[in-house]
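Encode chain A's predicted structure.
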Amino acid sequence: MTRPSTSSVGLILLLIGYAAAGAETDVRHRGVRSSACQEHTNLHNRLDVVEKKVEDTVEKLEAEMAALLDAIEAPKWRSLLDNAGNTAVDILGDPGRKVSN
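Encoded structure for chain A:
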């Protein structure tokens, strides 16, 4: 009786292990999976850029709003406001009609 070589025993064990493990559950090719992962990563990178731009825009708008509020509360505009916070000039009303104080 002849002894099988070590390489043929290893090959048989490898085939048995592959058969026992079953087929790969994800039938897509690795290249397709890699491509999908890359697209997913690219999408997240683009979303990060959009998020950063939105945050920067919000910060700029907050700064502009603060500057506008400071300008409205400046002394030269104070005369248009009475103590109750009502305006002396109705900018939305009839332009020919004056508001009396």
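The mean pLDDT is 76.
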